[in-house]
Design a protein that fits this description.
Blueprint (H helix, E strand, L loop, with lengths): L1 H6 L14 H18 L18 H9 L13 H4 L3 H48 L14 H8 L8 H14 L23 E3 L1 E4 L2 E8 L14 E4 L15 E4 L7 H9 L3 E3 L11 E6 L4 E9 L2
Parallel strand pairs: 3-4, 4-5, 5-6
Antiparallel strand pairs: 1-8, 2-6, 3-7, 7-8
């Protein structure tokens, strides 16, 4: 937010690809470095150390700053006085509001520290992955995350470990296949979850931030998809964490495959005053760029067939 306030509205800051003066560029770089020292541990998954953290993608952070937009809102919020409630209700609402606000802040702090702790594992695994890649055991350092900890312990304990490229390739294919699986809320027995196809017409979920909005659907599965978001897109995500918060500043609405009324997606959507529907099964299988209408009142996500990227 501090970076946005400093650079938003600066006439020298143009859309992505702009050339700044050397002084401005140097100052922006220093600000990004300072930002990453504090928040560089964030990633698109706080409990997955294989997720690439912000500190490893400084160019992406710069582009996000340059392309940042002001928060849009057509909703008008009322103060307690404007509600004209009885004095007892005003006191009660005030107490609940203050406690809820503190809870929201503390929740984000805890999530950030949780992500920071998991991020420490990444440093160790990346170093081991680099060593195994130099020994031609792995194709790339990131392939280390396709091996079990017991397998890594064995590889690290021998002078000339056997190549694991075929095993990594097989497990990567399995992960890609099961990425399309829809997990039920309750699992009974050992039957594998089916690989579902996207339903036509409409999807439904839990409405958690009021409003209606129509726009192009933009599927975001991770940090690698962040920069394809355009101002006014309907951002469709599998979940969200602290590291996903910048996406909401450009979104016209948000649809998530998971979450509830107090999930990160819902809380941040209400802060940005944009419609949100969560727990929408199959949302991420929508066609990227297809037109959708999000109804934050009844939880409907209507799918349109007349065009894409309108």
């Amino acid at each position: 937010r501090a970076l946005h306030e400093r650079y938003f509205g600066d006439p020298e800051i143009k859309p992505e690809g702009a050339i700044l003066s050397p002084e401005k560029e140097e100052q922006l770089k220093k600000d990004i470095d300072q930002f990453l020292r504090k928040f560089g541990h964030l990633s698109d998954s706080g409990n997955d150390c294989s997720s690439i953290p912000w500190r490893e993608t400084p160019d992406l952070i710069r582009r996000m700053i340059v392309r940042q937009k002001a928060v849009r809102s057509e909703q008008k919020f009322q103060s307690f006085e404007e509600l004209k409630l009885p004095w007892m209700q005003r006191i009660l609402i005030g107490i609940v509001f203050r406690r809820t606000s503190r809870f929201a802040v503390d929740r984000e702090k805890i999530s950030s520290m949780y992500t920071y702790g998991y991020g420490q594992f990444r440093t160790c695994f990346v170093k081991l992955g680099e060593q195994l890649a130099r020994q031609e055991v792995l194709e790339d350092r990131e392939d280390v995350y396709y091996l079990y900890l017991s397998e890594l312990s064995e590889l690290a304990g021998v002078e000339k470990p056997a190549p694991q490229k075929a095993l990594v390739s097989s497990r990567r294919q399995d992960i890609e296949y099961y990425r399309e699986a829809v997990l039920p809320e309750m699992i009974l027995g050992n039957e594998q979850p089916p690989v579902m196809k996207t339903a036509k017409g409409s999807l439904h979920g839990i409405p958690t931030s009021i409003g209606t909005y129509s726009g192009p659907a933009r599927i975001v599965n991770g940090i690698e998809d962040f920069e394809k978001i355009q101002d006014g897109d309907v951002v469709i995500i599998p979940y969200s964490d602290v590291g996903w918060t910048p996406l909401f500043a450009k979104a016209g609405a948000v649809v998530s495959e998971s979450g509830g009324m107090l999930s990160h997606t819902s809380i941040v959507a209400r802060e940005y005053r944009i419609p949100a529907v969560v727990s929408v099964a199959g949302a991420c299988r929508l066609e990227d760029g297809s037109k959708v209408t999000v109804n934050g009142y009844n939880g409907d996500v209507a799918l349109h067939t007349e065009g894409r990227d309108y």
